[in-house]
Design goal:
Chain A: Residues 1-26 form the signal peptide. The structure holds 2 protein chains of 2 kinds. Chain A folds into 2 domains: 1-32; 35-161, Immunoglobulin-like (Sandwich). The termini of chain A are far apart. Chain A is of the alpha+beta class. Chain A is elongated. Chain A has one helix spanning 4-29; strands at residues 38-51, 57-68, 77-88, 93-105, 112-118, 123-124, 134-145, 148-149, 151-161. In chain A, the strands form 2 sheets. In chain A, strands 1, 2, 5 and 6 form a 4-stranded antiparallel beta sheet that branches. Chain A has a 4-stranded antiparallel beta sheet with strand order 4-3-7-9, with no helix packed on it. Chain B is an alpha+beta fold. Chain B has 2 domains: 16-45; 50-150, Ribbon (Umud Fragment, subunit A). Chain B contains 4 helices and 6 strands, in the order ααββββββαα. In chain B, a hairpin with a 5-residue loop joins strand 4 (94-104) and strand 5 (110-115). In chain B, helix 3 crosses helix 4. Chain B is elongated. The two termini of chain B are 24 Å apart. The chains are: A alpha+beta, B alpha+beta. The interface between A and B is medium-sized, with 34 and 28 residues.
């Protein structure tokens, strides 16, 4: 009854239970955080804009991205993955989301940033629909916890438009 | 002889009824594990509700040996979500992030492009030859929860089968010989 094996077993079971409960509480405590992030994006220049030989439109642009995501961080946050996507609607597609830039924020100190960049991933349409196309810039973030549930949300910035002609 | 002798004696001294009880309790453990697994499959709607991360392509978010909980709902797939997908001709599913989505107006079908956070380029090189996009049927689920390190148990057991057999043998012996 009181052998070494039983005591070791009881101790291990208890330790794992406590650990699991603590992980669950840590994850649950994230729900009390109500973040208020802000973001601004400017398209400074259309570097080039062309119709590729296979018929798809492609555009390259230079942007200023600034954001303050500090309020997303809690004690259970390992990192925040942030990315900027161009979102638009075409005749064929009810939704197109094209990621233009992304980054990993490892700590709260780096969560307020300003970056001047060209698009990191190619902005290619499915087809030739980008001339004079209105699109939204959406800053998405994905909070990766140390343990537990993951959170994601976004800020939509409207009023962007691509030029009328290829250049 | 000591310990081994004692164990053999305890096996010998058992009554049939006791043996029967222990066989049932062993069966209960196995079936309840199965019930939990199948129940999770029903709740999450995913073929494999829990996956172990095997590669470092999503570091530093997910490391090798971390566990992901999957959920498969009817909701459409959107950029930024971490999905688990199967590529034709590859056995092991891949966990990567969606970076492009094109959703068809008429049929609602989606074309999806993925990329590992830690990889330099997108996943077109990993897809089957000539495949440009993932469709809905490739995707097994999206990651909703995260538990670090626990997956190492399964990684060690698949890579070192000997340890697996020793562990199963020892546990089985424990269940059979325990008197309570």
């Amino acid at each position: 009854m009181h052998s070494f094996g039983y005591r070791a077993n009881a101790l291990l079971t208890f330790a794992i239970t406590i650990l699991a409960v603590m992980c669950a509480i840590a994850s649950f405590s994230d729900n009390f955080n109500s973040p208020s992030p802000t973001s601004q994006v400017q398209v400074l220049n259309i570097n080039w804009f062309r119709n590729k030989p296979d018929g798809d439109d492609e555009v390259s642009m230079t942007m200023n991205i600034s954001a303050d995501l500090q309020s997303l961080f809690t004690w259970n946050t390992k990192q925040v993955f942030v990315f900027l996507a161009a979102e638009y609607k075409t005749r064929k597609n009810s939704l197109n989301q094209v990621s233009l830039w992304d980054g990993i924020i490892p700590a709260k100190e780096h969560a307020k940033f300003y970056i001047h960049t060209t698009n990191k991933y190619r902005f290619v349409d499915q087809g030739s629909n980008l001339r004079e196309r209105d699109f939204n810039m959406t800053l998405h973030w994905h909070v990766m916890p140390k343990t537990g549930k993951m959170f994601a949300d976004k800020i939509v910035m409207t009023g962007f438009r691509l030029p009328q002609a290829y250049r | 002889m000591g310990w081994i002798g004692e164990q053999i004696d305890s096996v010998k001294s058992m009554q049939f009824r006791q043996l029967f009880t222990q066989a049932i309790s062993l069966g209960m453990i196995v079936t309840s594990a199965l019930i939990i697994w199948k129940g999770l499959m029903c709740i999450t709607g995913s073929e494999s509700p829990v996956v172990v991360v095997l590669s470092g392509s999503m570091e530093p978010g997910f490391k090798r040996g971390d566990i992901l909980f999957l959920h498969m709902s009817k909701e459409p797939i959107r950029a930024g979500e971490i999905v688990v997908f199967n590529v034709d001709g590859r056995e092991i599913p891949i966990v990567h992030r969606v970076i492009k989505v094109h959703e068809r107006e008429d049929t609602g079908e989606v074309d999806v492009l993925t990329k590992g956070d830690n990889n330099f380029g997108d996943d077109r090189l990993l897809y089957a030859q000539g495949q440009m996009w993932l469709q809905r049927h490739h995707i097994m689920g999206r990651a909703v929860g995260f538990l670090p390190y626990v997956g190492w148990v399964t990684i060690i057991m698949t890579e070192q089968p000997l340890i697996k057999y020793i562990l199963i043998g020892a546990l089985g012996l424990l269940v059979i010989t325990s008197k309570e």
